[in-house]
Batch of 3 targets.
Target 1
Amino acid sequence: MTGLGLAASAALGGVHALPAPYLLFLGDVTEPGFAKTAFGLRDWAGDRCIGEHALPNASVTTGLERLTPAEAAARGARAMVIGVANQGGVIPPGWMPELLAAIEAGLDLVAGMHRRLGEIDALREAAARHGVRLHDLRVPPADLPIATGRKRSGRRLLTVGTDCALGKKYTALAIARGLAARGVDAMFRASGQTGIMIAGQGIAIDAVIADFAAGAAELLSPDAAPEHLDVIEGQGSLFHPAYAAVSLALLHGSQPDAFVVCHQPGRQGILGTPGYPVPPIEAVIEQTVLVGRLTNPAIRCVGISLNTGGMTEQEAARVIADTGAQLGLPAADPIRGGEAFERLLDACQG
């Protein structure tokens, strides 16, 4: 699961190989939440990441060695991956000199942005001159169906969040890996560009036309053996004023039997949307069950995933224990692991 260097192509199950190792491009990011693609690749595909590159005003780092595109190419890098997931999926003009420098150094460009590399004349022309390729991952399969709402065989678990960019992908990856280690027939299903880079296939749900988004989510987890469990990467939040629509489509289309709520203690406001507070976990559970019952009347919450990065072990243990006691559900930080995470896996497995 973590050793794949593939990304989804125009059809689910049809994949194309991405050239590795990667140089991770952080642009001019100053908010760690907007660099989640770079962090995801560092944490789940670190063997393919050779270093990072950023503009001078960027304050976010993955901790990898800072390299120019030419230096990375000299060390064997074959592609520069845009490790940014900014609002709107845009490619700012200020990035262009660095993207062109990567092409001139002989590196392919890989992006999961809404703005496609191949639609930018300067990049397309430079790539042709230097014999490199532009890889746009946020391209949904052609001829997607509308959702049927038909109940499918097999089991499904979806990660949902109190906000965006707080650990839904990490949680799904950790749960799938943890259950597979127990001998459970579990598979991670990617619904975003970083997950696709890690898993090797999937659909970037937020790039799908609204009428077909739930249908795309149905394709992500097809009929399966009764004991098979698809662990589906969540997107956005039902409480996010910009991204609630994709969260709802993914919820309806995936028809989860179970869900895990992901939350970052201490986060006060919805990311990138001033004036909107992060909802309490209880509200997310209630709302997810309420709207999820449309396609799976038996939907239930089985646990809480907490992003305790930045806390001490003692602080994290206290928050995890308090949250579990307050909600009467297993709570854990999947990255920290331990007995708390094993109890969460128990609940996901049952």
Target 2
Amino acid sequence: MRPAPSPHRLRTAAAVALACALTLTARSPAGADPAPAPAPAPQTLAGVRAELQRLYREAAVATDRYNAAEEKVTQQQKRVRSLNGRVETTEARLAALTERAGAAARAQYRGGGDLPAEVQFVFAGRPERALDGAARTRQAHLSTRNLLTALVGTREELGGHRDRAVASLEDLRKNRRSMDTQREKIEKRISAAERMEARLAEEQRRELAELEREETAEAQAEWVDTGILDQVGTEATAAGRKALAYATRQIGKPYVWGAEGPDSFDCSGLTSQAWLAAGTVVPRTSQEQWRLLDRVPVADMRPGDLIIYFPDASHVGIYAGDGEMVHAPRPGRSVTVAPAGSMEILGVVRPDA
């Protein structure tokens, strides 16, 4: 009977299998866009994990870029709709005033003089009042003409704004279409990573999962050993509690590219929707959340705050207290609770500062 293979041999076998998978998935069909240059084949399970992390990080960064492009298109569409509404309102007012001015002119013509027929009728009774009425009528005509002039100018100005906004919207749509191409390339990388994992034997997948747990635990322990949890806040604001409650209710729902609920989420889709449920609108992407929201020291964070991860701000979770956070990890995973210090923390932002 052969002795059971050692963990080292199992890890080596996993690495060899994944190296083969990497070689196969890195090849592009003839005429296709070249895939990014593959990293050197990993030699250990730690190397396998690093390669998987690299692939999924590439996907996360591309997701943020795509979501940002999508958000800009959405905002510009709202601006164009608003400008269209304002132009329509101005057109309606202009039409109504034009009709009133025309009616006054017709009445004056029927009267056969400088004063409208209605004013001449008043003249027959109390001449002094008729004169006052005539002056007021002329003033009203003058005011109407001035208002018509102003409305025409406003219509032309709004029309110019609208035309420029429409042109900007088309540029944004072109940029989004280029993001679609980028998204397709990154989805191929995700598929490559998923195929890599699928080709592992069951024992190798368990070894890889155990390695991930070990690395996560080590990172969290190192973070906790700094004494950070003795300083962070434990009480959330009312809005923070609502945001955290929303995020917690999503646990178990799958991570999906660009999704913001209700059935699936990406990382920033989860945090933006959580805070929207609390009545606060925050930027759609983790990079914009980091750029635009108020930053607080990590030592001052409290439940409900958003933790931004990695130097490129490509991931985000919502702090849940007790050293944990809720996040949507990556493709193939679901919304879950995880140690807050399990990844490289860039900083903390507070939507309700």
Target 3
Amino acid sequence: MPTFTAPDGTTLAYHATGDGPPLVCLPGGPMQDSVYLGDLGGLTAHRTLIRLDLRGTGRSAVPTDTASYRCDRQVADVEALREELGLERLDLLAHSAGANLAALYTARHPDRVGRLALITPSVFAVGLDIAAEDRLAAARLRRDEPWFAPAYASLEAITAGRATAADWDAVAPFWFARWDDDAQAFRAAERRQRNDEAAALYASDGAFDPDATRTGLAMFSSPVLVLAGEYDVAGPARVMQEYWGLFPRTELVVQKGAGHFPWRDDPERFVTALAAFLDEADGVSGS
């Protein structure tokens, strides 16, 4: 397992698997062990995945200064990884909360990012609003599921600001296309893989300046893919359309039948979309 040293002296780890040009992958959570990304549904057949374990997660060390868990302070970690890999420009994939870090890195270092793939991205870094009805409308697409009624009631409680811990557990089926044994095991593993202290500090005061980030992204000239899940209550399609519009050269893919983890819900469809984007000729225009 290779390691490198962040600018503040923290030892960080990454995992390289697959064949083809490197693709740096930033996990979500926030602050979850990158192991949950796996091979991204078989994307390793097309790219060498470089999964970064964010500081304090996976095989990376806990920093001396825990305030460095703040998202904007981790931009320097991504830049240190680029230098470690000896890449003039990196292709970057980020999932969920990891998209906040990817957005900040891209806005700060636009000349060091080749292609940017944002998978069911969180929107904190760019300041988009997700209304309660956006989430509830996505949830109602699942109305025929046997678990729908109690899960929907809990989602209503969450969106109304009156949630209990039990409600957060009850909405878990909405994250997946199939609420089967594999999904339930995956969900249970999330709790073990996340650094809760780090997660609590990730979006703390000062982490994000959405206006500045959006200005930077509007000038980013390289290709961008925003991939949303049709069923994703965390990133409903209407809001993902807004995210798509922040970039001058971008495409939006809404994966049918997918939740928050589209590479698990339909690996073939996910890999086909990612491989087409990553291998596309550089002359593509925005769509």
